[in-house]
Structures
1.
Amino acid sequence: MRRSCRPRCSKRRLWFLWNSARPAVLGLAVALYADAVPAAPTVHTIMIDGMRFIPQTVEVKRGDTVVWRNKDPFPHTATATGGGPASPPIAAGARWTYKATKRGSYPYLCTLHTTMTGLLVVK
């Protein structure tokens, strides 16, 4: 009498399928997890030097922090015209921090030296 190989064959087939598909399943799981976990907030630094904001345009994500560092020998501000950052005077050698919470495009300037302008874009 001949024995059927069905139980053994199906186990082998399942083992083969699982071992073949495991890298793809793990890769998909990692990709889904990476999309589900938000990236940690980033700190962006804008230098105030030579009567300029450097860089002049900065793109950040919601939740990121923006730091203005004043390297000039006199105070400056970073004040947006319609919401967004509104710093007090930033003394020489000091810094001011702003947390970007609202999406939008925020043109800003130094209220003490109105030719100094910049743009903060929050995505």
2.
Amino acid sequence: MSQTRMKQTANGKNRSPWRRLMACGALSAVLVLAFSGCTRDPNVRKQKYVESGDKYLAKGKFREAAIEYQNALQIDAEFLPAHSQLAQVYMRLGAWGAAAKEFRTILRLDPKNVKAHVELGNLLLLGREVAGAEENARAALSLDPDNIDGHILLANTLSARDDLPGALEEMQKAIALDPKRATSYLNLAMLQAKAGQPSDAEQSYRKALELNPKSVTALLALGNFYQQQNRLPEAEGQYRQAMQLEPGNQQPVISLSRLLLTEGKRDPAEQAIKDAMPNLSKNPYGYRLLADFYYGQGDLPRALEQYASLVRDHPDDIRLKNDYVQVLIQSKHLDEASKVNDAILKAAPKDTPALIAEGQILLRRNKPEEAAKLLEPVVGAEPDNAAAQYALGAAFAAIGQLTRAEQAWRQAAKLRPDLAAAQQGLAEVAIRKDDVDLLLNSAEALIRIDPKLATGYTLRAIGKIARHDTTGAEADLNTAISLAPNDPTAYARLGKLRALQKRFPEAEKLYEQALEKNPDFIEALRGLVEVDLSQKLAPKAIARVQQQIAKSPSNSGFRVLLARLYAGQRQLPEAEDELIKATSQDPKTSRRFSCSRRCRPSAVRLIARFRATSKAFSNTRRTSGPTSCWASSRNRGAMWPRHANSTRRPCRSSPTTRWPRTTLPIFCWRPAATPTARSCWPRPRAKPCPRIRTWPTPWPGFTTRREFTAPPRSCSKKRSTLHPKTLRSITTWG
């Protein structure tokens, strides 16, 4: 009996329930520990991140895929599959700098990766780093002499060196390796067109289509060739044929609309996009074409309407929301832009475009210090992000840190050689620093990026004027006018050139044309005033400004200009009234001209000492603090030859001074923190005389600060005031 019970117990038939429960619990614990051990395994975790990124990549969600691959790299910084996939994502996003960095990492981990050599070489060639591109091409061919892409890359690098015979020879080697590869004939055709062999190029394009009749890429390439040859009807036929082959592909629609715009057919271009929209409804790059078209044409109201509708229909498209925020910022709808951008950051706190947009909003709200503080960590985290570098440069420029702005914009231009905004920023820095070489280089880059952009020719004309090349400057300005006949900038610059040549009637006519194009264009009105004052026609200048104010009563800049004219004619009450109206109209002007009743009379009396007719006033760097400054135009001599000799007449802070006409004023006043009245000049200081001196003026609350190129030999009032090497003289309130 006892043996039977022992067997039953051993078999578990008579175990108590609590013992069975304990056994089940132990088994569960073992399973949980085993499972948790798997999930904590770094090899399993990084592989899961890569698999998740691959799923996002298959759906076209490139930013989400990039985040997953980056998560895998946080676990293992040398995980090659994650680097490979992340490089492809960056290529899809157009982040060429980040992609090049990933390919370099891949080659460090796998030096014999032929594909990485070719991809990196193509990116370097895109960035005009021809030597690096050729080095990678030859490295790829040394690893695999029969690699077709390596031969094509080497051919393109030789073409970049203007070695077209060598480039054509390399392309023949690539074609010999695979005579039925259509893309090789496309590259050969482009090289033949560059070599001035249009008939051979067309034959190569036809051969590519013969090998692959349904190739949209070949059709678009042939259409582009016809467009370059000015065979526009044939180009349109190729684009429409490509649209029929792939109705859901946005690229043929873009090419056709651009062709129609080139022919001046804006309405047919718009209609072509509208007709294609039903077929592009599921394409993230296609359903936004109409909104992008309106934005590209400068029609911001209709672009906003389209973007708002698309955001409602596609709430999960983060890229679309980012672009919508940019349009809102450019339309000056900062509150709505901030609202949409905050929603993006709430869902994705590390979204780089949203962080950049937040910095831009702060910059538009006149908070450049906060914008720079926000953008610096973004650039630190993504130094290869061209948009972040450009935004940071804009913040530094607004603060007045031109060197750091130039560094950021140079980096942005290096990362994206086709970024016109970065080149325009560099041109702005060049003008403010009188760096003619930088200005000319930036202008040439703009022309290279877009030969039909008038801005590049206008900037190059400014540089040529500084080099006394008036003939070349005039040709560039005429080109700019022909490219952008409704843009007043080129008219005003040509008017400035005519004024420098003392051809005042022509200058006046050009300035008036600029004002017809844009009644609020203050540069043109300032030029007209300068022409009138050059002919001693101050009443005419005042009447002209009054007439323009009647047309644009809300333009505070016109009222400031009128106040300066009144002050020059000693009509002080009228000058003060205009300044008060200007401050009440524009908050920015109000901050620059904020002044108590007590200090306004002194400020206006001080204005009367200056003949404010200098064109260079509009280009003088704004001071960061609210001060009232006058300086000789020595630093503007390189850009504006008219003011080159003004350094021989330094500023003198005396109530009876007849100020030189080339004096450059910046009017920014504020009440003194602790105003003290001084009625006379101080006694001379004992030697040694400092390089920078500060002393009170006869006007209550104002002090004068003079900076010398070297310490003067004498510290007397006379020698200090009339020192021939005076660099600048600044009179400050407070």
